[in-house]
Specification:
heterodimer; A: globular; B: 414 residues; alpha/beta; 9-stranded mixed sheet; 22 strands; 20% helix
Chain lengths: 79, 414
């Protein structure tokens, strides 16, 4: 039987909106981890890198965009 | 496949280390998606470099040949093979035209004491003139790796040298604010990122680096000689938080030659710096000079043709043919052009202004401090008679009398 090709997951960066207490940010990170369509790749002080399955993308955006900055990778280059 | 050959030789001597040839290709169907850049290295004796490309899809747009301690040679739309003879950089320091443009005329005036500058860039390479610069490592994505801050690109070391180089030999070029405390952070991509080369990165490392410099290192100014066409809310938020902690970010306007600033220079909280050039310094080159004589002021200044501009430009600073430290040898220098060179020149000039500003140092670390720094920069600027959208308030001028370093006097007599 031929295996179905899975859709590749989408990379997002989730950033803190304004000054948030570390506890609030930790809570957001744990919520991200608990959300089954999202896997946390790396969590920093300001930014969390997540991979989201295409099926869960609309729900992820709806849930977290109100409390965080959610954006796709932006490339910076030397000037 | 077509082959483009470049023969490189040196008119005098040999460089301290090899160099590289960069070929930029242009897609024949005009698709920006298919722009291609190829790079090949050559050794200290020069030699022949070959590029192969599909002539049905691409044509050569530009070739640049660079080696440490030599002028960079640029060829627009090269046809056929190239024989390139590189000329050595002048060693007539410690002051160049870029020092004169920011009002440094006395090589013994060492400014910037008491001001701490954070540099977010491609890293930092050890150099004799930069022994006082502290390298904090690299943000690889969101993780700070203290052992990974080496500059494999050359850009970050050049920027640090423009700000604070303290050369031991008089003929080498010094920084604009050698007494400023400088800390550098390299920004790099994480493991599975879209940006994979050593001169590209994403918003995670930039945001974390800004936060680290503002909150941990408590810097006064941050230099960001990079940009993006897209906005990042995450980076904007980090810049705004830094601003609220009294930290002012100075950013390169971008090298697209357009009436549009790159991000984060376009942000309200940052200072956008455009690139200034001056006629008569360095070999003649079409790409680095304005295409019309009318664009050059009576003083010989011009907006670099590659520099972005617009009403958001706060000031203009030297950014064409600036000679500064190179990371590949402890005594090496290289020439670079870009708004990347203009931002640190403005940043260092501002450091010399703030150094003697008691009111600035008395302010608490809040937004008022960053606003004071921005106002001080605007006050220190002097017009070079370019249009407002080119020069903003003008070129930042260092105060005439900066604090001099203490000298150690050794005497054999009791």
């Amino acid at each position: 039987m031929k295996a179905r090709k899975a859709h590749p997951s989408v990379t997002y960066f989730v950033g803190r909106k304004y000054q948030q207490e570390p506890e609030v940010w930790k809570n957001i990170v744990s919520q991200l981890g608990a959300f089954k369509e999202v896997s946390v790749v790396a969590a920093g002080r300001r930014v969390v890198e997540v991979e989201v399955s295409p099926d869960g993308e609309p729900e992820f955006i709806r849930m977290f965009s109100a409390i965080c900055h959610i954006e796709r990778p932006v490339d910076f280059e030397v000037a | 496949m077509q082959t483009l050959r470049v023969n490189v030789s040196f008119s005098q001597g040999e460089p301290r280390c090899g160099g590289g040839v960069l070929l930029e290709l242009e897609s024949k169907n005009g698709s920006a998606q298919e722009e291609k850049v190829k790079c090949e290295d050559f050794g200290i004796r020069g030699g022949r470099v070959e590029f192969k490309f599909d002539e049905r899809r691409f044509r050569p747009l530009r070739v640049s040949v660079a080696a440490v301690d030599y002028w960079t040679a640029l060829f627009e739309r090269p046809r056929g093979h190239l024989d390139v003879r590189l000329e050595p950089l002048p060693r007539s320091g410690p002051l160049g035209w870029w020092h004169e443009a920011v009002n440094i005329t006395d090589s013994l005036e060492y400014g910037g004491r008491g001001v701490k500058i954070g540099v977010i860039d491609t890293g930092f390479g050890k150099h004799d003139a930069l022994r006082h610069v502290k390298n904090l490592g690299a943000f690889e994505g969101v993780y700070l790796n203290p052992a990974a801050g080496f500059d494999t690109h050359g850009h970050g070391t050049h920027v640090a040298g423009i700000i604070a180089a303290r050369p031991s030999r008089r003929r080498d070029y010094r920084g604009i604010a050698p007494m400023a405390a400088v800390v550098t952070i390299k920004v790099a991509s994480g493991s599975r990122r879209l940006a994979q080369s050593n001169d590209r990165w994403n918003q995670d490392s930039v945001s974390e680096a800004i936060e680290y410099l503002a909150a941990h290192e408590r810097v006064d100014l941050i230099n960001m000689s990079f940009g993006s066409r897209q906005r990042s809310l995450t980076v904007h938020d980090a810049v705004r938080d830094a601003f609220d902690q009294g930290v002012l970010c100075l950013c390169a306007a971008g090298n697209d030659g357009k009436d549009q600033l790159r991000f984060p220079a376009a942000l309200e909280e940052t200072v956008a710096v455009a690139a200034l050039g001056k006629v008569g310094f360095g070999p003649r080159n079409g790409r680095l000079m304005p295409d019309e004589p009318g664009k050059v002021t009576e003083g010989g200044f011009f907006l670099a043709p590659f520099s972005n501009y617009g009403p958001g430009v706060a000031c203009i600073a030297p950014g064409v043919r600036v000679i500064s430290t190179a990371p590949f040898h402890p005594m090496a220098y290289s020439v670079m052009s870009g708004t990347s060179m203009a931002a640190p020149a403005a940043c260092a000039a501002l450091a010399t202004v703030l150094s003697g500003d008691a009111a600035y140092h008395a302010l608490p670390r809040s937004a008022a401090r960053a606003i004071h720094a921005r106002n001080a920069l605007e006050k220190a600027c002097k017009t070079v008679e370019l249009s407002f959208t080119y020069e903003g308030k003008g070129v930042p001028q260092c105060p005439a009398q900066s604090p001099r370093p203490k000298r150690l006097i050794i005497s054999s007599t009791p």
